[in-house]
Amino acid sequence: QAQLLESGGGLVQPGGSLNLSCEASGDIFSVNDMGWHRQAPGEQHQMVAGISTSGRTKYSDSVKGRFTISRDNAKNTVFLQMNDLRPDDTAVYSCYAVLKIQPAAPIYTYWGQGTQVTVSS
Question: Is the model's pLDDT at 54 over the cut of 90?
């Protein structure tokens, strides 16, 4: 069984920065894509950023140029550097990892519990 734990959320003023981390641990054979989603109260789930094992990245249009996703494959950790934060970035940020727990196991997407990011107005 795999588990993802996020950290780094908090309160920041508009224009500020935060760096989120998410570590996958437990029974892990291999990790493929990792990334971040977010959900604000009353709003739908939104993809924020994703990164492949080779470092290929993708971002939602709303965060391009402000957020940077990266990963440490040796530690099964994905990061999200968030700069120039806006009030509408306020949300619960959840990380995901597409992984196998065994060589013959299916590929599953695991999710963390989320970390709160609040950008004051």
Answer: yes
